[in-house]
Amino acid sequence: MSVMGQRLVYPGQNQINHYMEDPSYLALNGQYNMTGIIQASDTDISNTTQYVYAQLSPFDNAAFGLDYARHSYQVFRYSQIFLNSRFRFNLGNEFHYINLGASIGTDRLNEDRTSKENNINTIFRLGLHYTNFNLTIGGFMNELPVQNNLLNTSLDPLTTYNGYTTYLSYMIRVSDNFRLTPTARYNSYSDLTFFEGVMNLNYKGNYELAISYKNDYSVNAAVSGRFLKHIRVSYSFENAIGSQNFNNVHSVGVSVDLTPKENEIPEWLANVKRNRVKLNSIKKVKEDPVALVETETIEKAETDNIEKIEETISAEEAELAKYPIMTEDAPSDIIDNRLKPGYYIILGSYKQVENAEREIERLRKNGSYARYGKKDANDDFNYVYVDRYDNKDIASKRTRAKQKENGFERVWLLKID
């Protein structure tokens, strides 16, 4: 019989899919998906694990999920099922926030083909992480199964340990398409305590490669790729090092994105998010020392600047007042079943016309007027817009002004020739 070292049974792709062990990452991308993983090791005895994860994100700041795991080790079977929730608390903008996750469920350990069966116990997980643009600090408490040294006289080859993990990561944008994220982690589960370094490379959000080194424990590599837009396939490999001698572990996973197409983030918004992160990552240049001047001179200069700004704002408001906003009395913008040329302030785009009409009705109930139309007869999307102008400069100023209104922060400008 093979002799195996003590091993924590981590989900094999936890460095790519953080929600597998930390509920504060549940549906963090705002998508609905279902993930299944099969994990096995190079051993002659029965030693497999199956995972199923379902995630639902009905609101921007809340998500829910269901997890199921079943571990088979020799004649022992251990299963877990969790109900998960995650809540987000914004701290000024969408790149500065705290995520809090909590899970509650049951576990069951029994010995196959015997009368020995443990009672069902209540278990829980807690996760918390703080993100400030590229920096993330967090930790979580979890209960994980442990495979002990398997000897001929072993009576307890599968147990569970409570413990915690803390981590710190920093995302580096190598380019618009490449993100490199180094992470340092500290894991403590009973007598299994070790540091871990992780390097994650992400390309366009569709392909990921992660390498994890746990001191005196294991080396773990995982790769993931998106295919056919809504399907992600992944694989990981773990090899014991140091004092550990457990067999190599392989994991294969498939994730299916269930998010409706009309709820997907458009490319323009993805670019805006990338640029905003990039701009806030640029360090301010240290100013050269300047000569001291009289206090009265500084106060006078500040007063003059304020007056100039007020004059500029008043002039811009007066100019915009010449161009009234769109109302129900305005002529139709549809010519030959398409939007006529001009600059449109877009609130959203929808493939299903029913969704566009539903959004317009929601705006109407909130006191705002909007319309929708297509760029041409072959266009798949119906664009909901809140205004239209012939002049690009005026349209740009109106767009910036609209973005300052509550509920219209994400409007953008579309040119139709």
Spatial strand arrangement across the major sheet: 2-3-4-5-6-7-8-9-11-12-13-14-15-16
Number of DSSP strands? Answer: 22
Largest sheet: 14 strands, antiparallel, barrel
Q: What count of domains describes the coordinates?
A: 2
Mean of residue pLDDT? 82
From N to C, what is the helix and strand string?
A: EEEEEEEEEEEEEEEEHHEEEHEEHE
Measured as a percent range, the helix fraction is 10-25%
CATH architecture type of the largest domain: Beta Barrel
The low-pLDDT segments are: 282-293
Q: Which word captures the global form?
A: elongated
Q: Which radius of gyration do the C-alpha atoms yield?
A: 28 Å
Q: In the CATH hierarchy, what is the superfamily of the largest domain? A: monomeric porin ompg
**Structural class determined from secondary elements:** alpha+beta
If you consult CATH, what is the topology of the largest domain? Porin
What does this structure look like?
- This protein is 16% helix and 48% strand.
- With 417 residues, the chain is an alpha+beta fold.
- It folds into two domains: 7-268, Porin; 288-416, Alpha-Beta Plaits (2-Layer Sandwich), CATH 3.30.70.1070.
- Strands 2-3-4-5-6-7-8-9-11-12-13-14-15-16 form a 14-stranded antiparallel beta barrel. The protein has a four-stranded antiparallel β-sheet with strand order 20-21-19-22.
- The longest helix is centred in the last third of the chain and has 27 residues, at 295-321.
- Residues 282-293 have low confidence and may be disordered.
- Residues 337-415 form the SPOR domain.
- InterPro entries: PorP/SprF_Bacteroidetes, SPOR-like_dom, SPOR-like_sf.
- Pfam families: PorP_SprF, SPOR.
- It comes from Litoribaculum gwangyangense.
